[in-house]
C-alpha cells in the first residue's frame, strides 16, 4: 500500500512540476506576443478594462483619440521632487 501511495505522490509531483513550467512558459509567450503586437493591458478606471493596441500615426491627433503618455516619477522632475 505504501508503495502505491509513494508512486502516486511521485507522479503528482512530476505532473505538478510540469504544469508549473507550462504556465510559466505560456505566460512568457503571451507577454512576448503582446510586446510584439504593441498591446497593453489597461486595468485603470479611466477607460474600459481591456487590451489596447498602440499604433503610431503620422497624422495629427483629433478629439476623442486615446494616447499613452509616460510620465516620469517625482524624482525625475525638480518641480515636484521632495527634499
Give the CA-CA distance, first to last residue.
69 Å
Helical element count? 1
Number of strands: 2
Largest sheet: 2 strands, antiparallel
Radius of gyration: 23 Å
- Summing up helix and strand content along with how strands pair, one would put the structural category as mainly alpha
List the helices and strands and how they pair.
Layout: H1 2-36, E1 39-42, E2 50-53
Task: Please sum up the structure shown.
With 83 residues, this protein is mostly helical. The protein has one helix spanning 2-36; strands at 39-42, 50-53.
Task: Provide an overview of this structure.
The chain is mainly alpha-helical and 83 residues long. The chain starts with a helix and ends in a 30-residue tail after the last strand. Strands 1-2 form a two-stranded antiparallel sheet. Strand 1 and strand 2 (50-53) form a beta hairpin. It contains one helix and two strands; from the N terminus they run H-E-E. The chain has one helix at residues 2-36; strands at residues 39-42, 50-53.
